[in-house]
Amino acid sequence: MNNLKINKIAKILFLSFLLFCFSNTMHATADNNDAAQVKEIKYGFNKDGIRIVIKLSKECDFDYYSIKDSSKIHLNLFDAKLSDSFRTPSVKYDPLLGKCKIKQYNFRQVKMLIPLKYGLPIDNVDVFKLKKPNRIVIDILRNYNNYFQFHITKNIIWLQIEKASNGRFTLINELYVNQKSPDVTVDVELAKNGGKRRENICSMVKRTGAVAGVNGGYFSKSGQNLGLVVSNGKIVASSVKRRPPRTAFGITFDSKILFNRVSDKNGKLIPMWGKTWKSIVTALGAGPRIIASGKPHISANQEALGKGGNDITRRTGRTAVGATKDGRLVLYTVSAFHSNNKDGMKLEELAAYLHGREIFDAMNLDGGGSTAMSIMGYPVSKAPGHGRFQRPVANAVLIYDKNPIISPYYIAMEPREIVMPADGVSEKILRVLVCDRNEKPVPNKTPLGVISGIGLVSKKYFRTRRGMVDIKIKSVRAPGNYSIKLECGPLRTFIPLKLTYGETTEIVAEVIKPRFSPIDEILKDSNNGKKNGNGDNTKTEKRKEFPIRVLVRDCYKNPLKNIKVRFSVAEGKGDIDKVVAKTGKNGAVKNRITLQQKPAKIMITCAGAKPVYLEFD
Fold first, then answer.
1. What is the pLDDT at residue 542?
2. pTM, rounded to two decimals
């Protein structure tokens, strides 16, 4: 009896050993693609940036890019898979980094999305390999500060400051106007020539022939002006009577700039302090006051624009008008990356900024989603994260100058479309020529920027030489139609980019896991010769199901969707669940093979690819 127990235990141990060996053999068969295993992801944070480290079992090929939106970085690992022990790590809150997503896109490719709270210049992202152990490292610098200045005309200077610090992105535009010049006119334009209408700023600038402009005062959804408007010396909209007098700025016939809380009565402009405003050519009411006599002074509560009124004290996009100590007009916009309704500046921050810029007097205009500045009809206040939509407004402050425009006026490119294989290695040179309105090349060292192109180009800003810049464009493995956006001064343009699939196709196939227990199969074989349920000694035949998966991709490892894949039994006997199946978006398709006997061979084919065989011994 003891011997029988020992023999039984030995048999179980032996069968367990065979099961272990067999399971390992099947695992090896399923993983014979020799894919790199993604073992772990670690994050590191400091005040300057973020480091993401992906630990791998072996070296693998990768691509990274941000083509459409510079706040979303895509990382693709080819011939890689998430290991069985991989777990998505929990990451502490960071003001720049969103929630990263990593997934098994198909059984030969891992995708990772790195979302950012705001976009980054190309120079701020670096991705590279390390060995011993094998790793892919993503370094992200969170802070930057880019500053440019352009003379639009001899009387109008435009400055743009793009910066990110402490987890916040800010785009600031400053327009300095010499309104004392007899060639310059400052006016308030009503949307579509007046009435209860709305129109976006770029449209107003183009329609009127203005050089530049910003959005103006408050308005209702219907387009009714909710504040004082004086245009060409005439009051075309009254101040808000049901509220306390709100701040307005006015320009006299001799080009002096006035600021005060103003109401109108019987065709006269009545300020709260000082004499009645006379000889006013242009005036616009909004509020509150934010700088008075060279010092921050916020009158939001007094003007019913703070608590208890139409509270505008939150952080948001901003538009402001001010004057320097020597009486020069200045227009400002402050924009966020994604939405001016959710980020920007508080009134206190705006006042501190203007005070730092030595502005002597200033007031707030309408802001939030209405914030807009246009130069020559181009929107310069829209950050790369914003969509194309521009909110139509009821009025705008427009600047006219009889002097010629001397800033960059048009951009020419050669070639006019870039077509490249999506192989991750090909390169092409884009030659850009920037000229002024007189068709003369812009001055040397004029900055030309690539708005979004992480992975495509080496840096964001280039400097012209004889008006020209050569930009080296590198391919990435992301087939499709895109555009590379360029900016020079107020100009923004784009060149179409087409990344094409490879000419040849390859099939990758593997067995997932058999649907029968190996130990049951061993026991069945050991029971051969015993009577079956019918009372005879006939060997029982067991049908075996094998789920398989197939990937169709081009020669650059880009998955191909909607490809017809055909399955057939080349040798042996068996049934196929789907004789023809189409690949999904990820280029993969699953199927099931049922075999009556082994050995057997399954043939997998598709148009343009060599057949692939799965052998079952």
1. 55
2. 0.86
